[in-house]
Amino acid sequence: MMIQDLAILILAAFALDFIFGDPPNRFHPVCFAGWWANLMENIFRKLGNGFIQGMLASLMVLLPLTSLVLILVYASEKFGGLAGGIAAASVVLYVCFAPAGLALHAKRVLSELKKNNIEGARKDLGMMVGRNTSALDEKSVVKACVESVAENYTDGVASPLFFAVVGFVIAGSTGAAAFTVFYRASNTLDSMWGKLNDRYRHFGTFAARLDDILNFIPARMALPVVAFSALMLGLRSSNSLKIGFRDSDKHESPNSAWTEAAFSGALGIQLGGSATYGERIIEHPLIGEALEEPIPEHICKAVRLMILSSLVFATTAVLLGTGLQYLHKHMQHVFVVFV
Fold first, then answer.
1. DSSP letters of 136-166?
2. Total tally of structural domains belonging to the chain
3. Is the pTM above the cut of 0.85?
4. pLDDT at 333 over 60
5. What is the rounded distance in angstroms from the CA atom of residue 152 to the CA atom of residue 139?
6. Which one of 130, 196, 310, 337 has the minimum C-beta count within 10 Å?
7. Domain of 267, in residue numbers
8. pLDDT tens profile 117-172
9. Nearest CA-CA partner of 141 in 4, 295, 2, 17
């Protein structure tokens, strides 16, 4: 397949996302993956609550879902030709990407803040974050919303794009769809099982570490992309790079702070700090510098930065795919010569 096919595939996926947004929950494949994960958890917990049981449960979620998508896209390409394969894969990528849905959730919070409806803003924010939002003031709502946009940029845009490109280089549209679904399913497992509590401390370890590994490269690629996008929007680009590198380790996750710090530096607001989860109060490390007080306009800026960064990352991903495809092709030639 030619690299322009990859560009068409990614462009089609983004077009579907921005036209239709997220599918309804009852039809969303991620919700099906969550249902399947719960089923596998119930089955394998009967064997124990340790690392091995959690690993086996994870594999029984990841492998069947990936195989199913691989078969469906392969069949579409077999009977519908190149166009059929690209069309099927673009739908798969569309449901694995989330820039439009992420922007919509953030804009709902922003809309309520503009109407001075702090209760409505807290409620809408609760759809985006795992912390308790019932007692947050306006500044805290803004900070939490920006944090969610920044962190989910990696999970919902950068990483799916990265694995779509890698998969495409290896096996065309079928590989792009299969790799992306494998990543998205892994990310779903991490959100469900990657918790440091008594229930998941051992059972969820495999899912959490796998997600850390898969996000490692995309999260670091995202930093210069966000900084470049900040430059295009007239935000603090150099500060985005500075804070991004300086505070990249200030998070419990080895990957989340890369984009959170990049957004923090670009917007000039400080993120992190105290957050309440259930009955627990957790003091997260502070990220960035408080050059400005958080106001609702920062949510608007974060959304614009996320959308532009998504488009820039998509362009970067296609260029990366060009290089990988060239390298893959010539490595095959070298292998043939040596054999």
1. --HHHHHHHHHHHHHHHHIIIIIHHHHHHHH
2. 1
3. yes
4. no
5. 20
6. 337
7. 3-338
8. 999 999 999 999 888 898 899 999 999 999 999 999 999 999 999 999 999 989 99
9. 295
